[in-house]
Amino acid sequence: MSRAAQQPPAARPTLEAVAARAGVGRGTVSRVVNGSPRVSAKARAAVEQAIAELGYVPNQAARSLVTSRTDAVALVIPESVAKLSSEPYFSDIITGVSAELADSDLQLLLVLVRDEHERERLTRYLAARRVDGVLLVSVHQDDPLPELLERLELPAVLSGRRSAQETLGYVHADNAGGARAAVRHLLSRGRTAIATVTGPLDMEAAAARLAGYRQALDEAAVPADEGLVAHGDFTEHGGREGMRDLLARRPGLDAVFCASDLMAAGAMQALREAGRRVPQDVAVVGFDDSVVARHTEPPLTSVRQPTEEMGRLMVRLLLEEIARPARLRRQVVLPTELVVRESA
């Protein structure tokens, strides 16, 4: 055996090593690790940097949360401030989460992750066990945060999921079923050239809504036409641009299913610009049944997903996991409902 192979494994970084690297006392490191507010911002930053540099993992990361609690949970939204403020989905989730936590002793921390720097900072925060659990909203397939939560064995519940094989707990709506109901309704109204504007397909919710659209057409023996599919991003701008693209490619279309209400509002703007009447020339259906649906002209037919209830249920599942870390993670799919208004 070589001399290199006989070397003992590197010692795990200690609390004392972190204190020495940060230039603070052991007690200060302990307070930072345990989430105590009794630490200056300067000292906290120094300790967090030392933890990251040394790869220190607090001992409590391996202990039961029953014996090591911070009485705080984080609601993490990896989106921009502009998207957070413009999409009713997020405000409804936040309303449900805060309402469900109102009677508990837990503090809710809202965390936006807009770039790599903020993701790294959140990683250090979570590794230090500064919260008892995480609610993660707006899950994209390439987002490293779910894997981080699994690696840290931190209680976590997602709004949505990465795929049908998701291993973390989650709450989401029946996206495919809602899309099928929307397209079946359009078919029942005699529409024959039904287009769709999708959401970002790196999100399972958007992919499922596209799948539901295709399933409904297949059930009705309507031939697939990829020229009737435009890709959007759940924003009003994306819906407007997607509709313009569809009209250029398939000017004879007579209906469109948009994967969100905001995109449907944008699509209706594009239809007005093109001189198309809603619903006489083109019927429009959205998804969410948000406040947007009731304020378009004409009012928007939409698939209702119980967003506020999703936020409440996420909290209940997270509290179950915090109380009993070894239990199986629950995964819940809530039903959707088509709300018919004048646009279709």
From TrEMBL:
Residues 13-67 form the HTH lacI-type domain. Keywords: DNA-binding, Transcription, Transcription regulation. GO terms for molecular function: DNA-binding transcription factor activity; transcription cis-regulatory region binding. InterPro entries: HTH_LacI, LacI/GalR-like_sensor, Lambda_DNA-bd_dom_sf, Peripla_BP_I. Pfam families: LacI, Peripla_BP_3. PROSITE patterns: HTH_LACI_2 (PS50932). This is LacI family transcriptional regulator.
